[in-house]
């Protein structure tokens, strides 16, 4: 039997239940899935909060097992790339949304969705990074490919900085030598963000209101944006000439109010970051870099641990912007 957090769709909404499922049910769901993984760690991401609460129409079929990422050991494999005992990590590919995910003792997935546990990371730390950390690195890579380099007199902005994506982006960028300005709505996270390496803290309220002017003073050399919404519109008008924003998230809402002027008059670029369907070679690069470039002491500082039983409560808290940094769930 496999213990899992199972979601059911009821007239009153989504019901969350801890159940013991027969393992054959995992195979019924994904008969052609190559690999059964014994899940050791999973995590809580913003999207997990949405799935746990039935938001965003991310799940179309119930009963459903959420959990968009996990790390563990291969138990059974029909895929030549993996054998029992291999340590693996999964993020994305709509696992935990369209496919059953990691909030269970075992998961059955296609072998091509897995990556080997990166050298230098334990399964626990791989999940401390998880989808959020992996995506933060994809954003850093996109900004670098657009020409970003550390410069003494320039600042890189990170929005939603005390969240999962924001915490890893802040620590990685600071470690790479960037001056990081961290936007947060939580005064109690200022010391935490400075410990991660931010050199300036900006109050969310300062950037959450639309500006009356489409272009403001040029302020940022780059931005990793986990918030979207009004804040992204505002930041676009503050970008320095020719620079780029990596659009990662929508914690502040999906609708962006802007004009085309930042793009036309300042050559600003908006780089879309998707972690879900990211090709495997880019995944491997991002994980390799995370193992080297995310300082592990900072990662530990940004991580809280939880149990499967805590997920219903935490799933609500992350949507309310109350979860700091990353949450690893020991399964
Ligand atoms: P978290 O909840 O951990 O972080 C989001 C942070 O955004 C919060 O901690 C808070 O930071 C800030 N925030 C929350 N609500 C608001 C608001 N109304 N206005 C302004 N700021 C707000 O989530 P994650 O880090 O896991 O994910 C962040 C975003 O990135 C989500 O939208 C998620 O869906 C998206 N995402 C996208 C991926 C992709 O592939 N593109 C992959 C992973 C995540 P603070 O308290 O510091 O202000």
From TrEMBL:
InterPro entries referenced in this protein's UniProt entry, alphabetically: Acrylyl-CoA_reductase_AcuI, ADH-like_C, ADH-like_N, ER, GroES-like_sf, NAD(P)-bd_dom_sf, Zn-ADH-like_protein
Domain Enoyl reductase (ER) residues, every copy: 19-329
Stored CDD domains: MDR_yhdh (cd08288)
Pfam families listed in its UniProt record: ADH_N, ADH_zinc_N
Molecular function, one GO term: acryloyl-CoA reductase (NADPH) activity
PANTHER family, alphabetized: ACRYLYL-COA REDUCTASE ACUI-RELATED (PTHR43677:SF1), SHORT-CHAIN DEHYDROGENASE/REDUCTASE (PTHR43677)
Protein name: Oxidoreductase
Source species of the chain: Ferruginivarius sediminum
């Amino acid at each position: 039997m496999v213990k899992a957090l199972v979601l059911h769709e009821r007239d009153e909404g989504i019901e969350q239940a801890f159940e013991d499922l027969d393992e054959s049910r995992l195979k019924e769901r994904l008969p052609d899935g190559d690999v059964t993984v014994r899940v050791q760690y999973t995590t809580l991401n913003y999207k997990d909060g949405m799935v746990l609460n039935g938001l965003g129409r991310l799940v179309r079929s119930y009963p459903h097992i959420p959990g968009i990422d996990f790390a563990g050991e291969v138990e059974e494999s029909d895929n030549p790339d993996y054998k029992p005992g291999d340590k693996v990590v999964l993020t994305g590919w709509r696992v935990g949304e369209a496919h059953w995910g990691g909030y269970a003792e075992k998961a059955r997935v296609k072998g091509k969705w897995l990556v080997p546990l990166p050298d230098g990371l334990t399964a626990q730390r791989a999940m401390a990074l998880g989808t959020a950390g992996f995506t933060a690195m994809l954003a850093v890579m996109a900004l670098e490919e657009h020409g970003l380099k550390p410069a003494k007199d320039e600042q890189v902005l990170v929005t939603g900085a005390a969240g999962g994506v924001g915490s890893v982006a802040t620590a990685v960028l600071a470690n790479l030598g960037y001056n990081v300005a961290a936007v947060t709505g939580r005064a109690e996270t200022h010391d935490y963000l400075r410990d991660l390496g931010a050199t300036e803290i900006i109050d969310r309220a300062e950037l959450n209101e639309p500006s009356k002017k489409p272009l403001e003073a040029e302020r940022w050399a780059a931005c990793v944006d986990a918030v979207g919404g009004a804040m992204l519109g505002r930041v676009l008008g503050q970008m320095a000439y020719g620079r780029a924003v990596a659009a990662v998230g929508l914690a502040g809402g999906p609708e962006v109010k802007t004009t085309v002027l930042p793009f036309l008059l300042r050559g600003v670029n908006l780089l879309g970051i998707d972690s879900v369907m990211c090709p495997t070679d880019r995944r491997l690069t991002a994980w390799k870099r995370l193992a080297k470039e995310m300082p592990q002491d900072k990662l530990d500082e940004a991580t809280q641990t939880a149990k499967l039983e805590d997920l219903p409560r935490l799933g609500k808290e992350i949507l309310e912007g109350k979860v700091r940094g990353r949450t690893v769930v020991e399964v």
